[in-house]
Amino acid sequence: MIAKTLPSAVATVALLIGTTGAVAQEKMRISLQLPSTSHLGENLQLFEREVEERTEGAIDVEIYDSATLYTDREVPQAVGSGSIEAGVASLTRYVGDVPAVDVFYMPFLFNTEAKVRAAVAEGSDVREALEEAIAATGGEVLYWQAYGGAVLLSNGGPIRTPADLEGQKVRVFGKTLGDFVTAAGGAPTLISGSEQYLAYQRGTVDVGMTGVSGVASRKLWEVMDTITVTNHADIEFVVVVNSDWWNGLDEELRSEIEAAASVAQEDVRNRMTQIEADSYAAAEENGMTVYRPTEAELEAWRATAQPVIDAFVEQSGDVGQRVLDAAQGY
To answer: What confidence tier does 112 reach under pLDDT thresholds 50, 70, 90?
Structure first.
């Protein structure tokens, strides 16, 4: 159920009756910053159906989309503290506690689908190290949601090389991406995904940075006219559950929820290529120019990025070195 406000007592009672007649013993509220029509929203609805069918109504999933309850940056604390049972957050929202999560934002490290799939596969060195560290914040990673590669947004023409960012205010969504912008001579500004439309509209920033699927779901063509396809980082979201709530569930229920999570995780990963293709097409249909940098221009971006990688290793400690070494081996 996509919820905009907390249900009334009467509605709550009604929702407790599953299709099988079973009484829902547990509510699983999930906070999502994106609209329900986004691919992450659709994926959560698939997860909801799978959970409620597999548990025969014992788990009642409620999705609060469009940052109704919490913004992206608030989700880690809300879930970790138990204010809500679950939430969807960009992986980089954990960078304060786990600096190594920004390995996915090492410029041009994950520049192929094969490398991304190897890193996010269950049991991989990268995934295990990050999930273990995130668990210390009070939230367990239930599953990963693919969001695609990062692109740059602008008005009046593409961002061809690092020189085009000099003196420009740039929306970023992670510290490492901010370091990347700084290395290119720009001024990074951390802005939540749900707030970026207004930031572009009001001129808070000059240049945007997001996943191309976000351009479509948020209709960013209304406030930006050009996409530069840098694919300089891989954007991953995670669905996290409060550890105490999770551990308090019956083992059989946890097993069914994990099975539902596996279905949803596989579905969104497999659909990502088509989702991105559809998003580029929608952007062009709505008047945006899509610019693909030349190899020489991409090489200029890569050269600018090296200090960012060096700083990441210094700031993220042993876990950062572990995940970087693993990623470079894919």
So the answer is: confident
Distant-in-sequence, close-in-space partners of 45: CB < 8 Å, separation ≥ 6:
2, 36, 63
| 91 contacts 141 by C-beta, under 8 angstroms | no
Bridge partners of residue 207, in order along the sequence: 170
SS3 labels along 146-201: EEEEEEEEECCCCCCCHHHHCCCEEEECCHHHHHHHHHCCCEEEECCHHHHHHHHH
Span 122-136, pLDDT tens digits = 999 999 999 999 999
Residue indicated by tokens 């020489």: 296
Q: For the chain, what is the radius of gyration of the CA atoms?
A: 20
- Strands (E) in the chain, as ranges, are 2-3, 26-31, 59-64, 86-90, 139-154, 169-172, 187-190, 208-211, 226-228, 234-242, 289-291
Cα 105 to Cα 13, 151, 172, 178, 234: the distances in Å are: 44, 12, 11, 10, 6
Per-residue pLDDT tens over the stretch 68-86: 999 989 999 999 999 999 9
* The pLDDT value given to residue 3: 63
Question: Using CA atoms, how far apart are residues 59 and 257, in angstroms rounded to an integer?
Answer: 9
Rounded to an integer, what is the distance from CA 34 to the centroid of its chain? Answer: 10
* Side-chain-side CA neighbours of residue 183 (13 Å): 21
Choose which CATH entry (3.40.190.170, 3.30.420.40, 3.50.50.60, 3.40.50.720) describes domain 2-328.
3.40.190.170
Per-residue pLDDT tens digits for 264-319: 999 999 999 999 999 999 999 999 999 999 999 999 999 998 899 889 989 999 99
Task: Say if residues 142 and 269 touch (Cβ distance below 8 Å).
Answer: no
Specify the 3-state DSSP secondary structure of 65: coil
Instruction: Please give the model's pTM, rounded to 2 decimal places.
Output: 0.85
Q: The tokens 């608030």 sit on which residue?
A: 74
The conformation of residue 31, written as its DSSP 8-state character, comes to E
